[in-house]
Request: fold
Amino acid sequence: MSILRTEEISKQYPGCLALDQVSVSFESGKVNALLGKNGSGKSTLVKCFSGAIQPTNGAFYLDDEKLSFHSPSEANAKGFATVYQEMSLVPSLTVTENIFLGKMPRKGRFVDWKKAHKMAGEMLASMGVKINPKEIVSRLPMWQCQVVEITKAMSLHPKVLMLDEPTSSLASSEVESLFKVIRELKKQDIIIIYISHKLHEIPEITDTITVLRDGKFVGAVNTKEVKHQDIISMMFGEVSIRQRPKELKVQEGTVLEVKDLCRKDKFENVSFSLRKGEVLGIAGMLGAGRTELLKSIFGADPYDSGEVWVNGQKAPRHASPITMKKLGMGLTPEDRKNEGLILIHSIQDNLCYASMEKTARGWFEDRTMRNRAAEDQIRDLQIKIPDKAAPVSSLSGGNQQKVVVGNWLNTNPMIMLYDEPSRGIDVNAKQQIFEIMWKQAAKGISTIFVSSELEELLEVCHRILIMKDGRITGEVNPDDININELYAYSMGDTDE
Ligand SMILES: Nc1ncnc2c1ncn2[C@@H]1O[C@H](COP(=O)(O)OP(=O)(O)OP(=O)(O)O)[C@@H](O)[C@H]1O
Ligand SMILES: [Mg+2]
Reply:
C-alpha cells in the first residue's frame, strides 16, 4: 500500500490564500473523493501534486519520500497523472497525438503511426467508447474530449491518478464506463483522487471523502459511514434546497416558435414553442443534438430549413447572434473556455461583453453603469473573486461558469438559452442559478434549459422535451414522471 500525504501545505495567490496549512492523506487501492464548494482549493491542491504550481509553504510525501515538482513532466516521471478540470488537449492535433504527446511509439527514428493509432484505438475501446484515433480533437464534441483526456492520463500507467471533475461533460452511460475503468485501476493499487460536484456519484465510486472549505481542511471520513446530508454540511455548513415554487405559473403568450428546423446531420424537423415565463427543459443523451439546436436558434450556427419566430416576428434566415440578441435572446454556451470567456481579460470585462451596447455612449462607455452591472452579478450569483480587475483565469472553475451566466443576464434577455449551465458548479451555486431562472420566470422571462443531469430538469422545469438522434421524440410534465422513467425515456427505451 502507498500513501500520498501533505504536511501543512499552503498556497498563496495574489489576493487569495487558496490553501491554508492543509494536512491530508490519500491511500492507494482506494478512490479518494476530494470535495468542497467552488473556490475551496481542490484544483489548487491537485495542481501542487501535478507540478503545475508549487506550494508556498509545506510539503508532500509519497511513501515518506518528500517530493517537489518544478514542472508537470517531473510529476509524470514520478507517476503522477492528472485529468484537469479545464480541457488541456491540443485542438489541432489528432486524438492519437494527444494521447501520446511527447512519447509517440517509434520505429527507429520515425514515429510508428500504425502502432500509435492501434494502441490509441485499443485504449479508447477499453473506455467503452468509439472514437476514431485519427480524428482531429477540435472536431470532437466536449464529452469525447473528456474521454480522450482520461485515456491520455491512463497511458502514463500512473501511481497517482488525479481526476478533477472527470464526469462534468459525461452522461450516465459514459460515466458508467469510466467507473468500470476506475474500479480496475483500484485493484492495481493506484492512489486515485476524485473531484466532483455530482454528489450522487460519491457513494457509488469513492471509498473515502476529504473535504476542504475556503482553503482549509474540514475533515476526512469513510464514504460508507456518512449520509448525503453530512457531506453537504461539511462542505457548506447549512444549505437549503428549494423546490420550484408551485405558484410559478407559465403566462399567456408565445415568445418563441421553432418550426420544422433542420440542419443536416445535426437535427431534423424540430418544432416546439416556448411560452412567456416558461422554463422548458430539453433532456437527451450526449450527441442528441441539443447544443447544435440551441446554437442554430441563436444564430451562432446556420440551419438548412425551417423558421424561428421571436415574439411573433420571423427571425431573418441567416440571423447572427447579434441580431438574435437584439430580439431579446441570450445563450450561455456549453464550452466556457472557448466560447464563453476571454480568459486573460478581467472578471469585470467578462461580465459585461454581451451587454456592451447598453453601456456604450457613442465612442465611450458609461463606466459607472458598467461597474454597477458587474457588481450586481457578482453579488447575485455570489461569485467568489479576489478583485474585479483580476483575470477571469484566476477564478476557480465553478466561479468562471458563474461569470458566463452573469455576462448574459446583464443583457436583460427575454429568452435565455442555457446549455449545461450547472457544469462544474457546486450544489449551492446550482441552486442560485435555478432560483434566478424562477425569478426571471416570475417576471415573464422564458428559459430553455439543456442539461445532462436529468434530476435537475425534473426539479426546475415546467415542461421537458426529449431529444434523441436529432429529433424531438416526446414531451413530459415533470410532475407526472419520476427520474427512472425520464432516464429510460431519454435513452429511447420506451420510444414506440
Ligand atoms: N492563478 C490564480 N491567481 C489568483 N487566484 C487564484 C488562481 N488560481 C486559483 N485562484 C483562487 O484560489 C482559490 C481556490 O481555487 P481552486 O481552483 O483550487 O478552487 P476549486 O476548489 O477547484 O473550485 P471549483 O469547484 O470551482 O473548481 C479560488 O478562490 C481562486 O479564485
Ligand atoms: Mg476546481
About this structure: Residues 3-236 form a domain with the Rossmann fold fold (CATH 3.40.50.300). Residues 13-14, 16, 18, 36, 38-44, 85, 384, 386, 394-399 surround adenosine-5'-triphosphate (ligand 1) (CB under 6 Å).
